[in-house]
Amino acid sequence: MFFETHSLMGHLKMILFVGLITCTTAMNTQAQQTIPCTSDTNFRTLDFLIGSWTVKSTDGSRDIATSTFKKEAKGCAITEHWEGINGFQGYSLFYYSPMKSNWFQVWITEAPRARGGLKEKEMDMYPPLNSVVFKTTYYTNNGTQMLEKTTYTRTSRATILHQIEVSTNGGSDWSVSFDAEYHRKRSL
After folding, report:
1. Tens digit of each residue's pLDDT (9 = 90 or more) over 88-118
2. How many angstroms separate the CA atoms of 86 and 143, rounded?
3. Which end of the chain has a smaller Cβ tally under 10 Å, C or N?
4. Would the pTM of this model clear 0.90, i.e. be above it?
5. How far apart are CA 55 and CA 69, in angstroms?
6. Among 55, 54, 98, which Cα is nearest to 77's?
7. Residues 28, 76: one domain?
8. Residues in contact with 91: Cβ distance below 8 Å, sequence separation at least 6, in sequence order
């Protein structure tokens, strides 16, 4: 009887020890997962986009669209609502992946099957430091492989250049498919 009780006590101590280690590990993991995104500078890389913008031709002669970028999910993501003057709309979700240490963009329009209507992009930062570049590869309806790079360059607190370039030859040559200036709307 003594050995059975002693053995039982040993098992109970082991179970309590393992349970304590498991709970401590779970609490540490949960604490790491609940660190606010606003406290991690990686989640603030695209903060310069936040706000409402008038999108103009690069020569400033005509309005092209409006675009609004907002922080979402307690600062862990950014959404964009882009509306052309012709009523065409597009939406972006920008998010930072801590596991991949990089930003991603999902762009979708009301015509996801059309060229450029649905794209998943990954950030590729390069100089100048005031620019961010997202790249993707997709295929046209006739099977042509397209490389695309989207560049946002902050030229001032109130102006951003937005350029999209495409390549059909693996990146040897690039042509501009979209070129615009974003002008921050004034608060009322």
Report:
1. 999 999 999 999 999 999 999 998 888 788 9
2. 29
3. C
4. no
5. 13
6. 98
7. no
8. 79, 80, 81, 82, 107, 108, 109
The CATH number of whichever domain residue 131 belongs to comes to 2.40.128.20
Q: Do 125 and 180 fall into the same domain?
A: yes
**Cα-based torsion angle of the residue sequence 63, 133, 92, 147 in order, rounded to the nearest 10 degrees:** 100
> Do 47 and 30 share a structural domain?
no
Tell which residue, 185, 181, 176, 173, has the closest CA to residue 62.
181
Contact 130, 154 (CB under 8 A): yes
Residue whose token pair is 């002008």: 183
CB contact set of 173 (below 8 Å; sequence gap of 6+): 167
Both structure tokens of 65? 């669209």
Q: Are residues 106 and 86 in the same domain?
A: yes
